[in-house]
Amino acid sequence: MVKNNIKLKVSPKRDSRKTFQIVLVVLLSFLFGFSVCNRLTWFNDHYEIKSQFPIVLKVPVWVEQRRLISPIELVRVEVTASPSATPSATPLPRIGQPASKKGADAQVISKHKYASLMWGIYGKESTWGKADGCKNKGLFNGYGFRQNTREWKCFESFEEVSTEVENWLVANLAKFDNNINRTLCYYNKGLVLTDCDYSSDVLSLQANI
C-alpha cells in the first residue's frame, strides 16, 4: 500500500494580507486610544466633577466648568459714575492718583500705573487681603495671580506680587488694544471673551487710590 504525502502550501499573498490587517488593527487601536486620552485631558482641564454629601439634590454628582482663579465672596462698593462717561466705552483707570484708602496695601498699590484697576482685582479676589490664603504661610498674593488648578503661587512680599500683576496688565492690555473687559476676562478665565461677570465685578470695585 502506497502512502501519499500531501503538503499544503500557503500562498505568500495570504500571509502578506494577514500581516497587513494585523498592523492596521494595531495602528487604528493606537490612534483611537490617543484620541480618547487627548479628549479626557481637555475635559479635565476645562471641567471638574462635583459631588455632595449628604445628598441634597436628586443628582448627587454633576459636571462643572473649571475656573482658573477660584471665586472669592464679592463685596460691592457703591461707585458714582462720571457724568461724562459713555455707556458704550469703558475708560482706562486713572494713573498716579494719591492714596485715599488707609493701609499699607493701598500705599503699595497707589504707586503702580494701573492702581485703580489693581485695587478692583485685589478686592474681588481676596476682599482686599482678608481672604489671602498665602498670609497663613507668612507670604502674600491676594490678587489670585498664578493661583489655579495647576499652581498656587505665593510671594515673599506684597510689593513683589503687585509688580507682577502690573507687568501682566501692561503686557495684556497692549495685547488686547487696551480693552479692559477682554483683559480682565482673560486674567480670570484664560479665555478671550468680549465681556464677563468677572470684569463687571472688578470695575465696580475700582477706586481712586
Overview of this structure, please?
It is a single chain. It is built from 6 helices and 2 strands. The chain has 209 residues and is mainly alpha-helical. The protein has 2 domains: 54 residues; 101 residues, no CATH class. It has a two-stranded antiparallel sheet with strand order 1-2. Helix 3 packs across helix 6 and helix 5 crosses helix 6. About 14% of the residues have low confidence.
Task: List its traits.
single chain; 209 residues; mainly alpha; 2 domains; two-stranded antiparallel ribbon; 6 helices; 5% strand
Strand content: under 5%
- Which runs of at least 5 residues are low in confidence (pLDDT < 50)? 70-91, 93-100
- The overall strand count is 2
Classify the oligomer. single chain
Spell out the helices and strands N to C. Answer: HEEHHHHH
What overall form do the CA principal axes indicate? elongated
